[in-house]
């Protein structure tokens, strides 16, 4: 399921937020879910949906989307100029929970900020968005960066891969298959047909020049870390259940921190 939150600034509580707002936005999403189902929110935050030793949250969200000339970035601050923005949140959740989850976000008031600046925001309305018609080949546009990484042999730090890296496609699809397996294990999706995971049936085609995004998580704290993702347009060829998984739960890694959310190219 996917919902769109139509958000306005809640005057007089400011309109300037940190550029690195994805972590506090993720924390607010968890708190909102916890207000209606504390156990489910705790499950998502602490363990998630497991397959083998891996675990996945199976939700993602977009960057804040503004109208034309609706924001301005100066240094590490983002000013909301027209008092409005939108946010899309996508969950791999049973159909029966769609109305319940959407209802949790209606009328919510929240604050995004740090010691330097903040904005009070309120959710004016919530839309449940229909799924697109899924096929075995689709074009998408990133509405939050996609992160794909691999371990460095000589370092404790991960290497964040550009979509043009030779290993990007394999790791991208391995992650997608693992997410699908976790969703299947928890009965959130149906089984694929035999041989549908054949590598020859899967292809990722980058359609424009990827743009890198360096993102700071837990900025200004002792636990601050920096990660890197990329936004780009792409065409994916794969079994429909895998494409559905990526669209709904997010492509790449760290989706619950606001990474890997896409929309149909052209929408």
From TrEMBL:
Q: Where do the CRISPR associated protein Cas6 C-terminal domain residues begin and end?
A: 131-264
CDD domains found in the cross-reference section = Cas6_I-like (cd21140)
> What GO molecular function annotation could you give as one example from this UniProt entry?
hydrolase activity, acting on ester bonds
What InterPro entries does this protein's entry cite?
A: Cas_Cas6_C, CRISPR-assoc_prot_Cas6, CRISPR-assoc_prot_Cas6_N_sf
Pfam families with a match to the protein in the record = Cas6_I-A, Cas_Cas6_C
PANTHER family on file: CRISPR-ASSOCIATED ENDORIBONUCLEASE CAS6 1
For this entry, the protein name equals CRISPR-associated endoribonuclease
What is the originating organism of this protein? Lentimicrobium saccharophilum
């Amino acid at each position: 399921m996917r919902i769109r939150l139509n958000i306005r600034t809640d005057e007089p509580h400011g309109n300037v937020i940190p550029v690195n707002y994805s972590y506090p936005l993720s924390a607010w999403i968890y708190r909102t879910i916890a207000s209606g189902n504390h156990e489910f929110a705790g499950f998502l935050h602490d363990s998630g949906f497991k397959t083998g030793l891996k675990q996945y949250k199976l939700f993602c969200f977009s960057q804040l989307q503004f109208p034309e000339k609706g924001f301005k970035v100066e240094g590490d601050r983002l000013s909301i100029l027209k008092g409005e923005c939108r946010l899309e949140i996508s969950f791999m959740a049973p159909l029966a929970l769609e109305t319940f989850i959407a209802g949790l976000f209606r009328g919510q008031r929240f604050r995004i900020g740090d010691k330097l600046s903040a904005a009070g925001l309120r959710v004016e309305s919530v839309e449940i968005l229909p799924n697109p018609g899924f096929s075995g080949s689709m074009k998408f546009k990133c509405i939050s960066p996609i992160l794909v990484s691999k371990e460095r042999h000589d370092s404790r730090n991960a290497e964040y891969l550009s979509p043009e890296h030779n290993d990007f496609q394999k790791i991208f699809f391995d992650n997608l298959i693992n997410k699908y397996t976790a969703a299947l294990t928890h009965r959130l999706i149906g089984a694929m047909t035999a041989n549908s995971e054949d590598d020859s049936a899967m292809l990722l085609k980058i359609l424009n020049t990827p743009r890198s995004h360096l993102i700071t998580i837990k900025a200004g704290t002792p636990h601050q870390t920096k990660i890197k993702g990329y936004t780009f347009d792409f065409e994916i060829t794969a079994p429909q259940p895998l494409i559905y998984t990526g669209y709904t739960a997010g492509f790449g890694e760290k989706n619950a921190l606001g990474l890997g959310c896409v929309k149909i190219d052209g929408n």
